[in-house]
Request: fold
Amino acid sequence: MQNNKPDYYNKIDKAYYKTWELLNQGLANRNATFHIPVFICGEDNNSSGRIIVLRSLNEKEKKICFHSDIRSNKIKILKKNPKGCFLFYDKTQKIQLRISGKMKINYQNEITKKSWKKTSHMSRQCYLGKISPGTETNYPTSGLTKDIDNSKYSIKESESGYKNFCVIEAYITSIEWLYLAAKGHRRAQFTFKDDHVDKKWLIP
Reply:
């Protein structure tokens, strides 16, 4: 049984390495489970979660980035409370990550310009709606015109969506790692302060 245990089972440095390995796989592979985590934010006694797409990752700076519509409700929430967390889970690996951090909203700056240029024709569609996400409607709709819904727009025409585009940078403060196993679960916490990483085991 011992031989079937992964190398990170009882070695916290290996667990830490595995964490970033899975995150990098999630960034590189759109089919990887870590590509679309749940992002949760809230204020007062309310919180809400949604699926986001992992857009960039910086292990050295301990930073995760994703895109959003500046008009969305989560932007309003983050302006009041910049703290948020991500929930990742890989069923095959049986590893869960809870990543907490402080969010920074980038809007019409060098970061958004660079990210927008890399945003594909299809992905730009999300930002071409004239009505804000979450607006009440009397009928089912994507909020887009028929032509935009059918991708009948050029890259040049899609530039109008930039005014609704923003990039959220999550500066990670801690990662909680959980490995689920019949042989006994393992749980660890990685806390970041400046360039230091504090690694400790937790009871699962």
The radius of gyration is 19 Å. The mean pLDDT is 95.
